[in-house]
Design a protein that fits this description.
mainly alpha; single chain; 240 residues; 10 helices
Length: 240
């Protein structure tokens, strides 16, 4: 968990510096910043999703995961959590929850998060997460300068998500197949593409509802690898 803890600290430190800049940053510069971040997020998402295999499993996981997110009221609950934290710290920033969730998705949906957390869970190395921490430090400076204090508190869901992957792998993981990691990255890339639409204000999507898709793609790919003779669409009904 060393890499994740350092990562969380880097976001808090960078976000604190960003808040100081926010007071002196004109709105027109904030708009340009979010244009740049939105376009970069779109490109990053496309790069992560483009090499995907198991296309059918990816779309299936997005649908089932999205239904699960809606059923669990995930978007509503995360908004409630953000509002609770905002109330607890007595922040007057109206974009607090947006900053918290945007920061979490930007910091956690990248390939470095997934691969780095898995590597640390195996006890191999924390180098990838430490490198990510440096990158997130500078990213949080700019993001907090635009969205405010909520970005700082994105370390809370980051600890739960990134740390959860590390602990899960450490407890139950042996050798996670590369196919599962690649598929998780592909779904994460699609989620980033959706996030870019929000940042660019093209359309506001409840992208948080798709987070369970990361679990479902892991399950579906594992089943495909475990039972290669079974057809994916028929798995829940009959074997071939």
């Amino acid at each position: 968990m060393v890499g994740t803890l350092v990562n969380a600290g880097a976001i808090v430190a960078g976000g604190g510096i960003g808040l100081a800049f926010k007071k002196n940053m004109p709105e027109k510069y904030q708009d340009v910043y979010f244009l740049a971040v939105g376009l970069f997020t779109l490109l990053l998402g496309i790069q992560m999703a483009a090499p995907m295999e198991h296309h059918l499993l990816v779309i299936l996981s997005l649908i089932v995961g999205g239904f699960t997110g809606v059923w669990c009221k995930l978007s509503h609950r995360t908004t409630q959590m953000g509002n609770y934290v905002r109330s607890a710290v007595k922040s007057k920033n109206e974009r607090f929850t947006e900053g918290m969730m945007t920061g979490f998705l930007l910091f956690c949906m990248g390939s470095m998060t997934i691969v780095g957390a898995v590597e640390e869970g195996f006890g191999k190395t924390s180098n990838l997460l430490l490198t990510k921490s440096v990158m997130d430090f500078f990213s949080s400076i700019m993001l907090a300068s635009g969205l405010g204090a909520g970005v700082i508190f994105s370390f809370i869901p980051l600890l739960l998500f990134q740390g959860g992957i590390t602990l899960t792998v450490a407890v139950v993981g042996k050798d996670v197949p590369i196919e599962i990691i690649d598929s998780i990255k592909a779904v994460g890339g699609i989620i980033l593409i959706g996030l870019s639409f929000n940042i660019l204000k093209i359309k506001q999507l409840e992208i948080i509802n798709l987070l369970p898709s990361l679990l479902f793609i892991s399950l579906f790919v594992w089943l495909k690898l475990r039972f290669p003779e079974w057809d994916v669409l028929q798995y829940m009904i009959l074997p071939k």
